[in-house]
Predict the structure.
Amino acid sequence: MELLYIDPGTGSMLFSVLIGATATLYFLARAVILKLKFILGGKKGAAQVDASYRPYVIYSEGGQYWNVFKPVVDEFERRKISLSYLTSSKDDPVFSQQYAYVKPEFIGEGNAAFARLNMLSAGFVLATTPGLGVYQWKRSKNVKHYSHVLHMPNDATTYRLFGLDYFDSVLLTGDYQKEDLRTLETQRGLPPKALETVGCTYLDVLSEKIKSLPAEESHTFTVLVSPSWGDVGVLKRYGERLLDPLAETGWHIIIRPHPQSKKSEADMLARLEQRYADKSNVEWDYNRDNIHSMKRADIMISDFSGIIFDYTFLCDKPVMYVNADMDLRPYDAYDLHKQLWQFSVLEKMGIKLNEADFADIKTVIQNANDSPVLAAERKDAKRTAWMHEGEAGRRIADFMLRTVEEKTQQMNTTGSSK
């Protein structure tokens, strides 16, 4: 008799699917039971449903978003207002905090997390996760308001198609992001959502952190290579053709891959790490915070990655970019039929690096001196994309409280939850 063999990779995938399906069925069953109690039990059943209501909820996909949410969480704690913090990471930094009013809870990953989110009863849900009402994450009838907070100061239309369409509000880092979102609403016949410019929480956090870092005792000229991931990312597209001549300069080279590369391009990273294993001047950075490498670097080489704006806004140093032909078709930006702000501003404040320059890259970088013109363009970009510096946490908390209060007043006036 032949035995059925399942390879470990397939077995792991099937096991994950099984766990996700089981969790989904479990929470759906709970939702059905609660609904039946509501129907059969009248007011008593309604009271049981309402017992799960949470006025303010934050959902985090993982610890990598802690800097985005920390200023908001701290603000709720300071005001002594209860806040539910739901996370898909068991080691989320929120669990190590000693909060009295913020209640963290691990709700699982993937389908298990979405099953919990889809049956929430809440006044306000804040998240960085796009795709509400498009993929697994569905709107709960018992949630009054869904809000997306941007975790990047570049264009708000660089999400996958319809990424922000079904949120009730989007919290922006700069006023410039409003126009494109309004254009998409008009094109798609969507009701206008609330667009509130609050600033950038994670830049507020990193700004304070980078100021506290000690200066280097001795410094070697340092180049930071920090790309995006995927086919148009610097590492995937050029790899050794860029890194070989950089390694031969004798300068210190820090390579900081995009976090997604560890998941989606692990083989490529392993190959490159092995290639430069004996190069003492080549360093790989996988730390959660990027500020250590950014502070040490004298210049950055990137593509269209949002870290360009982190680097220029926080460090005010020159950046070189390799022109990447980004295919916008999967993204909301494709429907705008115009150049993205982040591309147009990069052409003004950045220094373009062509593949033909790689062979003589040391000379190219030495000649790519900073200038008053580039410095002025960096400052202008910062004023445009990072408004209300240092105030984002307070402004987001104010918006959440105000929105729930307005919803409550509407309910009291109309007798409706809508």
Remarks:
- Residues 275 and 318 are 28 Å apart (CA to CA).
- The first helix runs from residue 8 to 41.
- The first strand starts at residue 54 and ends at 60.
